[in-house]
Structure to design on (104 residues):
C-alpha cells in the first residue's frame, strides 16, 4: 500500500527527572536504536514536566532493546519505568462547569 507510514513501538517512560527535556529523552534512548520521536509530557497550565513521556522507535527490535536496558535503571537520581505504551482509551464526556440544565 503506497503512502502508508507505519511506526513501530511506542514506549511509555515514567519516573523522568523534572528537568529532563524531550531532547534529553531522545538522546538517552538513541543509545539503543533509531528514535522516531521523544516527548516529555508537560502540564498545560504551568509548562512543567509531569514526570513521564513517550519514545517512539522506528523498529520493534530497537524498542525492545531499549525497554530491556532502561526499565528500572537510574537516570538523574530517579528510577525509570519503561514499558510499551497502550492506546489512549476513549473517555466519557465530562459534565461540570456552568452548563447542563435549568437549575432555577
Amino acid at each position: 500500500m503506497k503512502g502508508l507510514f507505519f511506526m513501530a513501538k511506542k514506549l511509555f517512560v515514567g519516573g523522568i527527572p523534572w528537568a529532563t527535556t524531550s531532547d534529553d529523552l531522545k538522546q538517552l534512548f538513541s543509545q539503543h536504536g533509531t528514535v522516531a520521536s521523544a516527548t516529555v509530557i508537560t502540564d498545560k497550565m504551568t509548562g512543567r514536566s509531569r514526570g513521564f513521556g513517550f519514545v517512539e522507535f522506528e523498529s520493534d527490535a530497537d524498542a525492545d532493546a531499549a525497554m530491556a536496558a532502561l526499565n528500572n535503571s537510574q537516570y538523574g537520581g530517579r528510577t525509570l519505568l519503561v514499558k510499551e505504551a497502550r492506546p489512549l482509551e476513549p473517555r466519557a464526556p465530562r459534565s461540570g462547569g456552568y452548563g447542563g440544565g435549568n437549575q432555577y
